[in-house]
Design a protein that fits this description.
The protein has ten helices and 14 strands. By secondary structure, it is an alpha+beta fold.
């Protein structure tokens, strides 16, 4: 059988081989259609991690639910850590649970994870889906304290954890919801406070699910780059910075062509810096133009190999206490803040435009 794919890798047609009978082909096609169409809606449960501990539950319609970890699950035992929680996400099951059903459930949880990494004021992620091992210190003796070293599998589990359910688990006490102005206006928040939800989170998610598929995918790509910045910050501030800027660029419109060169016919329009500056001004107003240009200039220098942040280049003790390192750290914090504001501003603008279009009389 010949499979025809589109540019995204999705199957758009099945073409039988020459020696196949029409009856055989139609039976196979019917079986494929039956599996692709799916079956009942089920709920996938995955471990996720946030930089604040989770207490209570929060459900978004019939799409997903955030739950505190069950009693007996391992806890971090310290404030600054990746604190476990359970993410429950609805998905359309399949008559072929492996691999189609599993793929659908993992894809559904990944989409929610990416959205929450931007729409919640914390670092939010799952563990890598692929196997990963790392060297860890293992306590060999308590008193006096003696450590050994072993290569261990990265992972997380708890006794009795069920990975798939027919419906969402019973909701407990509600997670705290905070007024959106207060939620995003707080800086230096007490890390002992549990994970909270902005009171506009459901509205933001409604706008996302109003978008057509291509816009949803574009926004999720931007969320990916934002989360990537959070993931690599400890190991590479240079990569984190460029990831935050990449998140913004993902949502920029195509280059604007204003004219063509009369000699070579090449398109003429705003350069990349100007496009970036204009996009940030539109979706994150308030940042001075010189700072917007600076962000893009730093991004260009790092991306093209002309610059590396001191955090990554100099591992000595003194390198982290210089004006240059402080400036680069400030640039990274600014890029993260501007990226989040741009992403959320784009989502509101695009989502409201779609909402207005659907309400207009035809």
């Amino acid at each position: 059988m010949k499979l025809v794919y589109d540019r995204r890798g999705d199957i758009v047609d099945l073409v039988p081989l020459e020696h196949w009978s029409e009856d055989l082909f139609q039976r196979i096609r019917h079986e494929v259609d039956r599996e692709v169409e799916g079956g009942a809606t089920r709920v996938r449960r995955m471990w996720a991690f946030a930089s604040r501990r989770t207490a209570g539950t929060w459900r978004y319609r019939g799409v997903f639910q955030i739950c505190e970890p069950p009693a007996g699950a391992p806890t971090a035992g310290q404030l600054v850590a990746d604190h476990p929680l359970v993410l429950e996400v609805a998905f359309v099951s399949s008559t072929a649970p492996m691999p189609l059903g599993l793929d659908r459930s993992v894809t559904a949880t990944r989409r929610v994870e990416l959205l929450l990494s931007v729409l919640l004021d914390c670092r939010f992620h799952q563990l890598p889906f692929y196997n990963e091992k790392c060297w860890v210190l293992v306590e060999k003796q308590r008193d006096p304290l003696v450590f050994g070293t072993e290569l261990r599998q990265v992972g997380f589990t708890a006794d009795g954890f069920v990975a798939e359910l027919d419906d969402f688990s019973v909701a407990g006490e509600s997670m705290p919801e905070v007024d959106v102005a207060e939620y995003w206006g707080i800086r230096g928040r007490d890390m002992s406070e549990p994970l909270s939800i902005p009171n506009t989170l459901a509205d933001s998610l409604d706008l996302f699910f109003l978008l057509p598929p291509q816009d949803q995918n574009q926004f999720l790509r931007a969320c990916y780059w934002f989360q990537q910045g959070d993931d690599v910050w400890r190991s590479s501030m240079s990569s984190a910075f460029t990831s935050y800027i990449q998140a913004i660029e993902t949502l920029q419109p195509p280059p604007r062509i204003e004219d063509h060169c009369k000699r070579c016919n090449r398109p003429i329009g705003p350069d990349p810096t100007a496009q970036f500056v204009d996009f940030v001004e539109r979706h994150a107003p308030g940042l001075p133009e010189k700072d917007r240009r600076r962000l893009y200039a730093v991004r260009s220098n790092v991306s093209h190999g002309n610059e590396l942040f001191i955090h990554d280049e100099y591992r000595g003790f003194g390198g982290h206490f210089t004006p240059f390192e402080s400036e680069q750290r400030h640039d990274t914090d600014t890029a993260r803040l501007v990226a989040r504001v741009c992403l959320m501003g784009w989502l509101v603008e695009r989502g409201l435009a779609v909402a207005r279009a659907t309400q207009e009389p035809t």
